[in-house]
Design a protein that fits this description.
The chain has 399 residues and is of the alpha+beta class. Helix 11 packs across helix 12. The protein has twelve helices and seven strands.
Length: 399
Amino acid sequence: MLSWLPLFVCCLVVGVNGQIGFYANDGVVKMETAMRLDSRAKRIADSNKRLGNNAMVASYVAAARQELYDEYKDRGSKYLADGTTVIVENENLDVTVADPREDNGGFANPFYQVNHVRGLFQDTTSPAVIAAMAKVAPATMTSPWKQINGIGSLHSGNSALMKPQLITLLNASPNKIIRFLCESCTSPDHQQVYYKRLTPAPSNLVDILEYSWTATNNVLNTDFQLFSTYEDAVRGTSAWTFCGGYDQGGVGFPGTCGPTSASLNQYVNFQTKTPQSDVSYYVEDANGDFTNFAMTEYEKTLETWRQTNPTDAKASDTCMNLPSLDSRIMCWRSCSYGEKSDNLSALKLCRIKRIEGQMWKTKSESKTLELSSGTEQGGIIKSSHALGTDDGLPSSGTF
């Protein structure tokens, strides 16, 4: 006699083909299904928990990175503290964007066009950083060169006081070196030249340098030597081998002198400010720190780029628009250090120098636009007008 089998365990079934088999009933199926679903739910819950934890950690890391990024972005830095990670929002801070309708000027006034249409340097320094910088003095960096005279963008307001002191200062200087900077010179060799006296300076040395280049008491390799770098001048190495242009009237330093051959139209006349318009000269300061002020290789690379590609260089950074090499060095160093550190004094000097650079950039562009725009003729609105041409306007072609 067969034992009674609970209905919830199994049931005996005889198939159509005569085969006998046991099949679980609905209760067992439901139990197994519930167990599988429960196990799967636990696995999913554990996975979601891990994913949630990972996302939470990732959000904390991202927030910390963003906070550091925002800190340097708000202070106007181009890079993070590592000096290589670019802050995209600040990458083109000092690059002006031209209105496509503004080729030569705006509202017939190039100064308006530069300052209002194209826009000045966008200073994104946050109010908090500006407030913090207001509490500190800007970093200081003193040039070891005393300026005697300058014209154009290198103008010196102290020339009346300094010129009479040239010989006294030269005699007191450590190496008897006079340094010439020529921003307007087309020859890179003449943009920075060092004049080293070998014999006592004549009383008319100022005249000789400024507008009366003469062979009297001023003969190459007898009374003086010329060099391309201060280091060469101190060591007496790699001196220039050619000099000329003496006693021609109205020709000042360095005549037609060149490193190896004659160089034309690179001289200056401080009285007529021709053919060079942006020139200055300096004498060594007896107490100057020439070691710390010496240009680094990186700075030399920047200056070489500025000499050979002035348009691209000046568009890349407002420091490049400063007309004095010494000012550019101060700008490069303070910005490099200030942006990569917490030194607010260096950052403040950087900001001051960049604003000065933007002022010079605006002045230069305005002058260029003034020359290219010229004077309006017949009251005709120019095609470069900020609001477009006068085509289609009543009485087209006239005001």
